[in-house]
Amino acid sequence: MKKLQVKVLDERMKNNLPQYATAGSAGLDLRACLDEAITIEPGQTVLVPTGLAIYLDDPGYAALILPRSGLGHKHGIVLGNLVGLIDSDYQGQLMVSTWNRGQTAFKLEPMERLAQLVIVPVAQVEWAEVEEFTASERGAGGFGSTGRA
Ligand SMILES: O=c1ccn([C@H]2C[C@H](O)[C@@H](COP(=O)(O)OP(=O)(O)OP(=O)(O)O)O2)c(=O)[nH]1
Ligand SMILES: [Mg+2]
C-alpha cells in the first residue's frame, strides 16, 4: 500500500489515525477536532479542523473529502463545497466545510467522524489544440442523446 505522509496537529489524533474500516473500504473517516460540541443551525456552514495535515507529494494523486452517507442522508450534514479537493502539494491542515442543509439543528461532538478522505489517481494534462476532432461514435451528443430506457 502507498505510504502517505501525515502530520498529527492535534494530540487526540496521535495513535488514532484514520483507518480503512474494512478491507474493501475506499474512505478514511475524518474526525471533528473540536474542543467542545458545536451546534450547526439549518443552513449554516462551519469550517471544522481535522487535526491532520497530509502531503501527497505527487501530482499523480489527489485526495477528496466526501460526506459520510449516513450523516448526509439522515441528518443533512454534507459539505459546503460539495466535495473537498486536496492538491498534492497542500501541506496545511485538512479542513471540512460542514454544511447543515437540513431543517433541524445538528450537534457535532468533539472527535465525531464527520467526513471521509479518498485518495485518487490524477492525470495532469497539457493542451494539444486542434481545429477538428477525429469523429467518435457519440460526437457532441449528450444529455440523454442515447435515449431514456
Ligand atoms: O474541503 C477542503 C478543500 C480544500 N482544502 C485545502 C486543500 C486544497 O489543496 C486547498 C485549496 O483548495 P481549492 O483549490 O479547492 O480552493 P481554492 O478556493 O481554489 O483555493 P486556492 O486559491 O488556495 O487554490 O485547500 C481543504 O482543506 N478542505
Ligand atoms: Mg484552487
From TrEMBL:
SUPFAM superfamilies: dUTPase-like
Gene Ontology BP annotations: dUMP biosynthetic process; dUTP catabolic process
Pfam families named among the record's database cross-references: dUTPase (PF00692)
Keyword Oxidoreductase: no
Enzyme Commission no: 3.6.1.23
Top-level taxon of the source organism: Bacteria
Keywords: Hydrolase, Magnesium, Metal-binding, Nucleotide metabolism
Names of the cofactor(s): Mg(2+)
Residue span(s) of domain dUTPase-like: 16-147
Residue numbers binding substrate: R68, S69, G70, N81, L85, I86, D87
Keyword Transferase belongs to the record: no
Catalyzed chemical reaction(s): dUTP + H2O = dUMP + diphosphate + H(+)
Family annotation (InterPro entries): dUTPase, dUTPase-like, dUTPase-like_sf, dUTPase_trimeric
Enzyme class label: hydrolase
Cited Gene3D superfamilies: 2.70.40.10
Pathway this chain belongs to: Pyrimidine metabolism; dUMP biosynthesis; dUMP from dCTP (dUTP route): step 2/2
A GO molecular function held by the record: magnesium ion binding
Entry coiled-coil feature ranges: none
Record function comment: This enzyme is involved in nucleotide metabolism: it produces dUMP, the immediate precursor of thymidine nucleotides and it decreases the intracellular concentration of dUTP so that uracil cannot be incorporated into DNA.
Record-linked NCBIfam families: dut, PRK00601.1
Family in the record: Belongs to the dUTPase family.
Protein name per Swiss-Prot or TrEMBL: Deoxyuridine 5'-triphosphate nucleotidohydrolase
Gene source species: Polynucleobacter victoriensis
Name of the coding gene: dut
